[in-house]
Amino acid sequence: MTKPERRTIAERALAGYAGAVADELDLPRDAVLAEVSDTAAVYLPLARRCVRYPGRDLMLVWSGRRGWSVALESTPRRPLEVIAYFGDEERFPQPHAVASFVEAALDHDGVTRAPEFPVADLEETVERRLGRFAGQDLPESGFPASRDSIAL
């Protein structure tokens, strides 16, 4: 498989995974922005507000290095302000677990320490772990029977 084909599969897999998270949060899939390049990232605007920041819009973001986090919407002049991280136990948690994390974060409960996941071979990791979401029959892709995480 050539590099461009792999990138396309990884991008589709990450977008499909993020779409499944959007479904769990009752958000439209067309609001999902997912990218795989030299890094990988997901952006999803949240419809709800946080009790700690009632006047601010929120977003759910995922990065290959930090995993999922809930943050205040930012501007080019304002740095990203994360209010909660999913944690360091899993880079690709099940979509329902991400939705539960968002609900808890919006109600005051969240991990504030940033996890640090390795980013070497991130594109291949996305492809292997989330390939099912791209509609591809890749080895070792998709979710295992466990409801809480996707094993590497």
Automatic annotation (TrEMBL):
<dbReference type="Pfam" id="PF19809">
    <property type="entry name" value="DUF6292"/>
</dbReference>
<feature type="domain" description="DUF6292">
    <location>
        <begin position="17"/>
        <end position="103"/>
    </location>
</feature>
<dbReference type="InterPro" id="IPR046259">
    <property type="entry name" value="DUF6292"/>
</dbReference>
<protein>
    <submittedName>
        <fullName>DUF6292 family protein</fullName>
    </submittedName>
</protein>
